[in-house]
Amino acid sequence: MSDKQRSLLVQYMAKHTIFAKSGVSPGQNNVKKTVDQWDRLIKILNANGPPRSKASWKQTWSDLKKRIKKKAGYLAKATRKTGNVKAIDDKGREVPPLTAEEQQIVDLCGGKEWTPVRQGDSTSEPSEPSDPRVVPTASTSRSGNVDVSETWEYLITPNLSPVRVADRHDEVSCAEEEDEGPSERESESEPSEKELESGPSTQIPQKPTGSSANEEDPGPPAKRPRTNLRGQYQDTSKAYVSVTMESIKATKELAAAMNNLAASMNNAASSMNAIATAMTNASTAQCESNLGLGLALARLSDKVGRLIGGDEEEE
């Protein structure tokens, strides 16, 4: 994106503030008007530099707002501190002041007070009178759950006319561009082309009168019941402990059975050793007996031989 294209982009968004904030024009025919706005803007941008697609230009505008918003947050944080404190980003680099063009983008997005002052934080800066234009807002999701945000956003932006708020539950923020089709809460009357070109309306919608004023306020959408995650976690933990204890018990029983088997095998081995010893002893006795018998037979044979020899000599 060239410098000229960026300048033309910011100038166009400055002339169409609601379109710059949410990317959606107000009214019942907001889809067609949004497409026409983007087509008109892209035609101007592509005629003054390298051409891009609609999706690319939408992403470029979204990234530009995010980058400037983050930079303004660093500067606002440094401004709250006492002394001559320089703004430093997450990487430890010094953040330069906003340029005139960047300040214009900050104003389009509703001011530069991006970093909230948390409740209970101490600050040595003198208190300033409250600005009636600045109110804390809470983001309401489509599911009905209210997420209380700590950011401060302008309902009446500096140097700009008031922002049209169609419903008290609508979220007022510097939203990103999304092609979501018609919004859920559309304005009752479609703004004229002259009003669209000149920016948002300068009047805040008043409370309806007549029969519609007597209707009861439906109030915020019902909250979705929260899941008892803690109870589920406790039940899961109990089940896990129970399974672990059963596993330990089974392991102990298996170890006891293996010990009994080893003892039985030791007893059998002892019995076999006793039998082997008895057999060895019996074999030894048998050998000794056979040896004695052999010696006796030898002596007897010797005597018989001598007797036979004596008889032959006498003859």
Automatic annotation (TrEMBL):
InterPro entries: Myb_DNA-bind_5. Residues 182-197 have a biased composition (Basic and acidic residues). It comes from the Eukaryota. Keywords: Transcription, Transcription regulation. Residues 2-72 form the Myb/SANT-like DNA-binding domain. Residues 110-145, 166-235 are annotated as: Disordered. Residues 202-213 have a biased composition (Polar residues). Self-associates forming complexes of several hundred monomers. Involved in transvection phenomena (= synapsis-dependent gene expression), where the synaptic pairing of chromosomes carrying genes with which zeste interacts influences the expression of these genes. Zeste binds to DNA and stimulates transcription from a nearby promoter. This is Regulatory protein zeste. It comes from Bemisia tabaci.
